[in-house]
Design the sequence.
């Protein structure tokens, strides 16, 4: 039963990553932790490893059709700097409050895109 | 300017929250790239942003190889199929589907926060009774 659930979530997570290039972690990590009772850090580590492989495969598929934009390098650098800032403040901000803000903002982003 | 688009998503990556979703949304709002082009940029950004995390989790022994062996083939197959399908979808429709997905994710996160809150409250009550 547990293995079947893992397989079903894997199919769903992979499909979402393939379709939108993001979002698999938002489904797979909570599914493993809350529903299948895996350790939080193990779930995160395993899922991030899987998503990295998926992203690599996706890049191969996308690169046949889309060109690599030079702006991407700047965005990547921004992400790295942001990630460093995030690592500095990660212990100083209440994660529960941030989760609530992010959940509400995610819904607002969704509404913004379908309008 | 493009450098700034990555800052906030990068911060969210460090918190383990949907940095990719925010990056895609930001690029949608401030550039005129097609949804698929934005997704391609996001893939590159994720590969770089996650490289350190994968290394770090691996070093700490926090990657479950048995779980990985079960999940990987199914995620790879469904990912390839969905990726090919997504490239045939027109950019506005794909953007809308992504918006719908974000709304579902937002509701799913609210559910998670509520679930954790109830669980914590129950544990507190048991401790009090005990």
Sequence:
């Amino acid at each position: 039963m547990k293995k079947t659930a893992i397989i079903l979530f894997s199919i769903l997570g992979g499909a979402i990553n393939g379709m939108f290039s993001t979002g698999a972690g938002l489904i797979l990590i909570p599914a493993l932790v809350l529903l299948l009772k895996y350790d939080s850090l193990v779930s995160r580590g395993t899922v991030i490893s899987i998503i990295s492989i998926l992203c690599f495969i996706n890049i191969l598929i996308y690169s046949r059709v889309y060109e690599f934009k030079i702006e991407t390098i700047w965005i990547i650098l921004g992400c790295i700097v942001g990630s460093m800032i995030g690592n500095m403040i990660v212990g100083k901000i209440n994660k529960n409050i941030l989760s609530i803000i992010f959940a509400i903002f995610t819904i607002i982003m969704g509404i913004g895109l379908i309008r | 300017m493009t450098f700034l688009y990555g800052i906030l998503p990068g911060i969210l990556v460090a918190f383990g929250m949907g940095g990719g979703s925010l990056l895609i949304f930001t690029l949608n709002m401030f550039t005129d790239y097609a949804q698929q082009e934005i997704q391609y940029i996001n893939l590159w950004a994720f590969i770089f942003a996650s490289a350190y995390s994968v290394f770090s989790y691996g070093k700490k022994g926090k990657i479950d190889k048995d779980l990985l062996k079960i999940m990987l083939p199914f995620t790879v197959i469904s990912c390839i199929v969905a990726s090919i399908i997504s490239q045939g979808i027109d950019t506005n429709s794909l953007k809308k589907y992504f918006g719908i997905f974000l709304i579902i994710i937002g509701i799913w996160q609210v559910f998670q926060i509520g679930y954790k809150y109830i669980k914590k409250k129950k544990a507190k009550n048991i401790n009090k009774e005990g």
Summary: The radius of gyration of chain A is 16 Å. Chain A has a mean pLDDT of 90. The first helix of chain A runs from residue 2 to 20. Residues 69-115 of chain A form one domain.
